[in-house]
Write a structure and sequence with these properties.
Helix content: over 70%
Oligomer: single chain
CATH superfamily of the largest domain: NADH-ubiquinone/plastoquinone oxidoreductase chain 6, subunit NuoJ
Largest sheet: none
Radius of gyration: 21 Å
Structural class: mainly alpha
CATH class of the largest domain: Mainly Alpha
Number of domains: 2
């Protein structure tokens, strides 16, 4: 097995495990953090396959913007969780393992010999060419996605806003 094959299976296993952890966590914030690990692993796979632009877009759009939006939604909804220790060891161990695996995989990808293993055919497109292609051919779908994100943001604002009886209770106390 080549180094690229080993890295692929290692990163894929971490993606599956971190996604499973995200689905099975009771604490929503921890689930979002594990989902970020999953998105970072997907970005590593894109980079491994020779698509650095898609890897960067994965990190910026999914692991960055959308996960921040999820965290804001979680904070605005004010989910009352059971009292827990702030950072129990059972939460640190999987996060540390996933982090070390990602660091090792990134280190191997960056510092491996360029001639080791099978070379993939290189398809190169500049970000300008990619953007022109996307916005010329798929502009309608991009507008639909932007509207969906706007509706999600408005919904999160409405869910996180004060309840109808809450304003009356505040006035009664005064």
């Amino acid at each position: 097995m080549t180094l690229f094959g080993l890295l692929f299976y290692l990163i894929a296993a971490v993606i599956v495990a971190s996604t499973a952890m995200a689905v099975t966590r009771r604490n929503i914030v921890h689930a979002v953090i594990y989902l970020i690990f999953s998105f970072l692993g997907t970005a590593l796979l894109f980079y491994l396959f020779g698509a650095p632009l898609l890897a960067v877009l994965e990190v910026i759009i999914y692991a960055g913007a959308i996960m921040v939006l999820f965290l804001f939604v979680v904070m605005m909804i004010r989910v009352d969780a059971a009292e827990e220790v702030l950072f129990p060891v059972s939460q640190w161990i999987p996060a540390a393992v996933f982090g070390l695996v990602y660091i090792a995989a990134a280190f191997l990808m960056v510092f491996s010999a360029p001639g080791a293993g099978t070379e993939l055919p290189l398809l190169w497109a500049t970000p300008q060419e990619f953007a022109l292609y996307i916005f010329q051919n798929y502009w309608f779908f991009i507008e639909i996605i932007s509207l969906l994100l706007l509706v999600a943001l408005i919904g999160a604002f409405r869910l996180g806003g004060p309840k109808k009886g809450a304003s009356q209770a505040v006035e009664d106390k005064a």
